Amino acid sequence: MRTRFVPYAIAPFFTRSNSTQRFFSSSITSHSQSPTLSENQTTESDASHKPISDFGRTSSETESTASIEPPRYEFDQPISKTSDLDQTQVIELLLTHRKNPNSSLKYFKWAEKQPGFVRSLDPFCVLLHILMDSPNHHRIAHILLNRYVAGDSGPSACVLVDHLVECSRLYGFESHSRVFNYLMNSYVRACKFRDAIDCFDRIVESGIEPWVKYINILFSALVRRNKTVEARGLYSNVVSRGINYDGATIDIIMRACLKEEKADEAARYFKEAKASGLVLDAVTYGTAIRAFCRKPDSIVACKLLNEMRKMGWVPSEGTLTGVIGACVKQGNMAGALKLKDEMVSSGKPMNLVVATCLMKGYYMAGDLDSALNLFDKIIQDGLMPNKVTYSVLIEGCCRDGNMEKASELYTQMKIAGVQPSVYNVNSLIQGYLRAQMWEEASNWFDEAVECGIANIFTYNNMIYRLCKEGKVEEACSLWQLMKSKGVIPSIVSYNNLVLGHCRKGNMDLASSLHSEMLEVGLKANVITYSILIDGYFTKGETEQALRVFDQMVELGIGPSDFTYNTIIKGLCKAGRTSEAMDMLKFFVEKGFIPICMSYNSIIDGYIKEGAITSALSVYREMCECGVSPTVVTYTSLIDGFCKSNNIDLALKMRNEMTNKGLKMDVIAYSALIDGFCKRRDMENARELFNELQEVGLSPNAVVYNSMISGFRNLNNMEEALVLFNKMTKEGIPCDLVTYTTVIDGLLKEGKILSASELYTEMLGKGISPDNITYTVLVHGLCNKGQLENAHKVLEEMDQKNMTPNVLIYNTLIAGYFKEGNLQEAFRLHDEMLDRGLAPDDTTYDILVSGKFRGNNFHIGTSSA
After folding, report:
1. Is 766 left (phi over 0), alpha (psi -120 to 50) or beta?
2. How far, in Å, CA of 722 to CA of 739, rounded?
3. The pTM is what?
4. Are 33 and 76 in contact (CB under 8 A)?
5. What is the crossing angle of helices 438-451 and 422-434, to 10°?
6. pLDDT of 192-247, one tens digit each?
7. CA 798 and chain centroid, separation
8. Is the dihedral of CA 574, 576, 580, 581 positive or negative?
């Protein structure tokens, strides 16, 4: 049983006016003196004090407490003959005078300074409860807590909370949640955030309600100190435990999310709070609108804006600007312009940010003129364009191909004293490259290099375009220049050059560059491997392409949809369509979702292999999977049916395509026209040819070649020549197939002079004849007895190091044999053997019986 401490009678004490600040103590003149506890003595003002708060919106002003001190006293009589004070004695005396907080505070301060006093937590907790029983002393308690928590030593937050709770229970104090909230706030003031969170958790576990005000103060402090993870965790704790919070809490947590670029989470918090019926203010709405603008979701942002207006809140200029920007990002120019008009009509002038956003919106919508007109207008209205404004317009002009205006704006920017950046130069270089203006692009690039502003993006733009155009040697020179200037190649740089080598078929160089990339510490990504895989497929090295794919997977690099489609397409082109189909099923099991292009590759592969039934099966599977066929799908099927002489199925596909609202393109028309031409059905072919033009399409060289060949096959060179002349008049370049077909038809009609003139015209255009053209010439001349000219064709082939084929030799041998020049016929036979050509049955028929089975020889467009 504890011994009750009864103090000796002691004289009154008085306040020192020159006391020195110390933690929980004052300067004491004699350690043997103690205070007299007087029930009616006070030194503090009776005015109540508000708790100190310097965080969050809930406090209208921050009170400074640096100059506020608990009263300090001197003592002149001994309190006890013994010099030792234990915590029980101190607690007993404090409790005896619990109704007089000033006396309790004086005594505690005196006792705390005694040499024999054993410092412990409970007396301090008892004092705090005594002070909290008096509204006039709340502020004193808060100050004491601030100083206590600010110290480097002391128990953990959980221990302090536990002692406060236990003292309240043991000594019958009223449970003051205020002291616990003050404690949590003191940890925040001391920037001891982990302790503050622990304090929060402990007081909640103890059944004490944290005040919304101090919860928000803690949230705000965490967000300011970039402890957003802790803030979001604390918010989840508040919600899950059913603790009260308000709109300010939501606002703080939303700002925390926005600070981490997590607009979706911020929007989710707002929606949940709104659905719960929580009262939200204009500031919270403003933050929510900012979150939806960042997503962006201009529809919801505009909806919230209208809700604000209905509640009588006036959106700020910043809020309106944000929503206008979101509308522009989502291509909603009508909404953006409407908000701009509302903003101006409400007395807020259009600011530069809004104007710049609208300019970008205009050019993104393909209306560069409106963007430029707006630019002129803001200058007239006195707004000074900044670097962003000029950059937006320069970029817009470059994308639109208006390089003259882009260059003019760049010059205007410099005259206006706005310093251009390398970003502007890069925009100009890209614009000139897209416009195929290589000289101008090179000039800007050279200027950037000379000025020392060229960065990795500058070099990458040039290298990529050079590689895309097949100018790999120039790209390599630029690569060396880049490294010599100290610009370190990025993964994009390597990928661009690897692409260039792959397109040139230089797979050894591409592979070497890949190895170099790894040596310099760059990790090849899925783009690198996909480019290599495509390069090996293109070169016909199918197995190596598959090995690179396996290597990529082994390294843990997940294939992209482009990778999967590259493999499917590559296998189909290699004539391994069935394997591609198996791979597609395997990829689907791995999570790949096939697109139309995936199926189109397989359909086209089966058609090229003549497996029309398999192609149709894939088409049906594609439709069953919900993948809509495109014009390319139907064109492949139509082409396949036409080539397999199944024109009825081709027409059926055409009807199905039309029923689905798909319009045939030139390639689809070309396939059908060629199918009819090969069947010598020129009536239907011409009908389709006319229809193609009626729907607004222009026939290309392939379509004309099919039609010319069709009429040639019917020996209707009059119609063939009409089409040939029309083709020339329309500026469609005639290719080798066109010339070969017309020359063949003219020779068959015996129009050797016309054929010769056409051949000369062809050579004059730089079109070199191939084996088929020479075969046509030799066959046509020989049939008309022009053996000498036919032999000159053979000599021309020799000069071009071209080896005549067996058909050419057979035609010449038959011609000489027919004229009775057996010596020349057998010489040609020997020459043919010397060239390594094996005579066929036709050759021996000619030599033995004088018969030549090639009299019905003709050239079709497919073979030509």
Report:
1. left
2. 14
3. 0.64
4. yes
5. 160
6. 999 999 999 999 999 998 999 999 999 999 999 999 889 988 999 898 888 999 99
7. 58
8. positive
